[in-house]
Amino acid sequence: MLTPEHLRILQKAFDKAKCSGLHGHIKPPPISFAAELVGLITRKDISTSKHTNKKIKDSFSRMLPSHITAAFQKWALVTKEKMASPSTMTPNSPITGVTTQGTKDKVFGANTSAFSSRFYGFLICHPIYHENTMLLATRHAIYSAAVSTEETATVMLLPSWNKDMTTNPYASLCCKYPHIVNSSAPSR
Hints:
This protein is mainly alpha-helical. The chain has helices at residues 4-19, 33-49, 54-59, 66-76, 131-147, 169-175, and strands at residues 80-82, 121-125, 152-156.
């Protein structure tokens, strides 16, 4: 569900992308904000419908609470958000670099592939709760950190369905690189 605040964010992102010339490179060209908003919602519904697991379906609509985003910006210097789509951008957040899988999401200024370039700088990554997607995101974050020549910190927000994180493939991968990964789970 899109709130009026989020609609304003999307309108602003659409207008900014248009003014910066991004719309001129999109095929077919954008018709209007309303048409692209319908397309965004339709793409999200199609992506969600490919999954039967409720946790995965719900993860397509989750948005970080603004106080969490503000804390990461203040205390971890986060400036980018990876693997979010325009429909899950955090309200009132100056975080830039939203990345999505939908090429038409460029009309809102989104990058189209989280894995087309390495993760760098200070960022938050919260992929959909699909095991393979979370594993790929974790692997890409570790690889990016290993080859980076600049300061890099990726805050991965991944679920723990039980108390034993070692059963998750992405958690097991983190254990293999203790010199790169500092993983911590919230206390219960």
